[in-house]
Write a structure and sequence with these properties.
The protein is elongated. It has 27 helices and 26 strands. Helix 22 (636-652) runs parallel beside helix 24. It has 787 residues and is an alpha/beta fold. Keywords: ATP-binding, DNA damage, DNA repair, DNA-binding, Helicase, Hydrolase, Nucleotide-binding, Nucleus.
């Protein structure tokens, strides 16, 4: 009896002639191997271990797994030079900290200052840039060898691998200059983190088992790129079929994270009309979770390439994107003054220190700084002073140190110019326009990545962390006002979307400019009615300035000449100054008198030769102040001045409460006034200036008198309040005189006696007539209908 042929199977139906046998399809079934059949004792690693035992460097397998040991190679010579350096500096190595963290920060300047080390490794500076990976591996191997020689224990071979992380790599490369020519080179990048992915694991070496002889081997995966072994390493085995062993001890992984960094462009390097450039940065091991969205970072890393997202799944991918494999990350939070962390992007040279010293030597330095903020806008010295104090901020010891300023006024008064100037001179300024800004673009966006994970992308307020966020056209973003409430008071932004619940820091000063609803400011309405803003949002602003376009012959003459001077240039400026001399000597004397009001002391004398501070230097002066004078204290006398003014406001209030927010605002501004003078203590003069500034911002737009109704309803009486007060007085007059009909003249006298500021009397009476409070009886007589 003949045996039936064994049936062979294969996944899927065959096609063509090879897929059929006598007209019937047959299926071949591929044999799957159980990973348990692979015996790791029968491993090529055993013979490799014998090879490693003959090498004098115990950690050779960690750093050069694919390199053969040669005592005359450059790798060994460079490692010996690095080993000499670490032997000489053994006292700076903390063994316990090194074993726990497994990295060692090494300042490149220390290596470059060591002449003996450079004599042993002559090409160190070039090798560090051109062949960074091998140079870092040599330094790490030398450090590992030094540590094992210090321990001198039986387990010295099992000491974990450590990595040297270079810091203070001086040549900062702009993100726009990172191109293909820098591939494989060590660079230093500075920018702002705008997105951080979740923590993942990346495989750095994978174990494989031969399907023929069951030998196991470990293959290093450079940059996490998966690859199969080229052939079996066992003797007399030429198999090229392998099974990956993910659960094997031969497979090793490490923590991995991707973040996106956006360029931080200073005012002298600004390029308008383009999207800010970004680059991805890979973080591994201890660098994971070292920074978050909105942080200013300085990254030292190696430029590498990966397949782009579009061609990542294609076998013939030929489109790549550049990224930076981070060697070290220095976060601004780890600085000495972590309370004011916006300073890592500002570097000070010797010339800068001398220039700051010259500014501090000026007698009227506050007036100089205020007038240097925005020279193109004439006047508005008090508004400029408030904006400058907000840029500096107060003490960040316990409560928020950032002040918020709102500038409201008629169009064409230079509000946008002031905000642009503030964004330029701030060490970390972000300028946005309200009519093109969304809530997520202002705060935080939750982005879903390709793998399904969520990442946080920073908005304008997070990017302006420890700086200022200038919002123009503030009245056009009514839907986004609620998103600012938490950021302005608690100075953080909470996120609860897609299962992600977290909060990001937003320690930023908000400087906003807004136009009234009707185009021009209506003096008979409050700020809330002119801007259609909630009382909760208005109460969070420390200072609210109202700019009105009032006809003034002297001011208009000076303003027109200022504009002509800007367009005439330097020669025209000298000519105009020589022709017109409108400023009297008495005005000059008043400006120099310290007893004069602050508004007079801040004004420049006409024709006065003043060397204004350029924006680049003013930016560094503000950064210097924030860095070296972080927490000024209030003197007892200054605190008494602020307390007396606060109690005065409490006594003058009607129905609108004056809360402690006004007192905290005055404390912040007083501390900022002392910081501008580089003083550690705020004096009585500082407090007096802030009281005058607060009085000026609280004054009534019509009478010029102090109006404490600021916090919620703004200043001035609303139309409804005036009507209610007038009808009440008219009712009393009707009861007293026992009549209900009044002439126009009587009602005018009543309004005058009540001191109601009504711009158009007949429009006011017409509104009361339409609303049904009074009814017209004849040409100039009205009857009161209310009971």
């Amino acid at each position: 009896m003949s045996k039936s042929p064994q049936k062979k199977t294969w996944k899927g139906k065959g096609r063509g002639r090879g897929g059929y046998f006598k007209g019937r399809p047959f299926i071949f079934e591929k044999k799957k191997l159980d990973p348990s059949v692979f015996n790791e004792s029968n491993s090529s690693a055993a013979s490799t271990q014998i090879f490693y035992d003959r090498i004098p460097y115990k950690g050779w397998r960690y750093y050069f797994p694919e390199e053969a040991y040669d005592s005359n190679s450059d790798i060994v010579l460079h490692t010996q030079a690095a080993e000499y350096f670490f032997d000489k500096n053994k006292t700076s190595i903390n063994l316990k900290e090194l074993e726990n963290k497994r990295f060692f920060n090494l300042d490149i300047k220390v290596l470059l200052d060591d002449s003996e080390f450079l004599s042993r490794w002559c090409t160190f500076k070039d090798d560090l840039v051109e062949n960074a990976e091998k140079s870092i591996s040599c330094m790490s191997l030398a450090l590992h060898q030094t540590v094992t020689s210090i321990l001198k224990s039986e387990d010295e071979a099992e000491f974990p691998s450590v990595k040297v992380r270079f810091i203070n790599f001086e040549s900062i490369t702009p993100i726009k200059d990172i191109k293909a020519g820098l591939y494989g080179k060590l660079i230093s990048v500075r920018g702002t983190v705008i997105r951080v992915s979740g923590n993942k694991l990346i495989c750095v070496s994978m174990g494989f088992g031969c399907n023929t002889c069951y030998t196991t081997m470990s293959i290093p995966l450079k940059d996490g790129v998966y690859k199969m072994p080229s052939g079996c390493k066992a003797d007399n085995c030429r198999s090229k079929s392998f099974t990956p062993l993910c659960s094997s001890n031969l497979s090793r992984t490490k923590s991995y994270q991707i973040m996106k960094v956006q360029e931080s462009v200073a005012d002298e390097q600004s390029e308008g009309g383009r999207v800010p450039r970004t680059i991805e940065v890979d973080l591994t091991d201890d660098l994971v979770d070292s920074c978050g969205p909105g942080d200013n970072v300085t990254i030292v890393g190696i430029v590498k390439i990966r397949n782009s997202e579009e061609n990542r799944k294609s076998k013939s991918a030929n489109l790549f994107t550049l990224y930076v494999d981070a060697v070290s990350v220095v976060n601004s939070k780890s600085g000495v003054n972590s309370g004011r962390q916006s300073l890592c992007s500002v570097e000070f040279s010797i010339k800068d220190y001398y220039a700051i010293q010259e500014i501090h030597a000026e007698e009227a330095r506050f007036r100089l700084l205020v007038n240097s903020l925005c020279p193109t806008v004439y006047g508005h010295e008090m508004v400029k002073a408030g904006l400058l104090l907000a840029l500096v901020g107060g003490s960040s010891a316990n409560r928020r140190a950032d002040a918020h300023v709102l500038v409201v006024g008629d169009p064409g008064l230079g509000k946008s110019h002031l905000l642009h100037a503030c964004a330029q001179v701030s060490p970390r300024g972000v300028y946005v326009c309200g009519n093109t800004t969304s809530s997520s673009g202002l705060t935080v966006t939750l982005v879903k990545e390709a793998g399904g994970d969520f990442a946080l992308e920073a908005g304008a307020l997070v990017l302006a962390n420890h700086g200022c966020c200038c919002i123009d056209e503030f009245d056009k973003m009514t839907n986004q006002h609620q998103a600012l409430l938490e950021a302005m008071e608690q100075q953080r932004i909470s996120v609860a979307k897609g299962g992600v619940v977290c909060s990001l820091p937003a320690h930023a000063s908000i400087l906003a400019a807004a136009n009234p609803v009707g185009g021009h400011y209506n003096r008979s309405k409050t700020i809330a009615e002119n801007l259609k803003m909630s009382a909760a949002l208005l109460s969070r602003f420390d200072l609210i300035f109202i700019l009105l376009d009032r006809p003034d012959e002297h001011l208009d003459s000076m303003l027109s000449e200022h504009v002509m001077t800007l367009h005439a240039g330097l020669k025209g400026k000298k000519k105009l100054m020589s022709v017109n001399s409108m400023c009297s000597s008495s005005c000059a004397e008043e400006t120099d008198d310290p007893k004069q009001p602050l508004s007079n002391r801040l004004k420049l004398k006409y024709g006065e030769p003043v060397d204004l501070v350029p924006h680049s230097l003013l930016r560094k002066y503000i950064a210097y102040v924030r860095k070296y004078v972080p927490n000024p204290k209030l003197s007892v006398e200054a605190a008494k001045v602020l307390q007396d003014f606060y109690l005065e406001l409490r006594k003058m209030q009607d129905t609108t409460p004056v809360t402690t927010r006004q007192l905290e605002s005055m404390i912040r501004l007083t501390q900022a006034r002392a910081k501008l003078e580089l003083r550690e203590e705020a004096t009585t003069d500082d407090a007096d200036d802030i009281v005058q500034l607060m009085r000026w911002s609280m004054r009534d737009v019509v009478t010029g008198d102090l109006d404490p109704k600021l916090s919620q309803n703004g200043r001035g009486m609303s139309q409804g309040s005036k009507a209610k007060r007038f009808i009440g007085a008219l009712q009393k007059k009707a009861n007293f005189e026992n009549k209900d009909t009044f002439t126009v003249g009587e009602m005018k006298e009543l309004i005058k006696s009540l001191n109601l500021q009504v711009q158009d009397f007949y429009q006011f009476i017409s509104i009361l007539n339409v609303q049904g409070f009074i009814i017209k009886r004849g040409s100039d007589r009205y009857k009161l209908l209310s009971v």
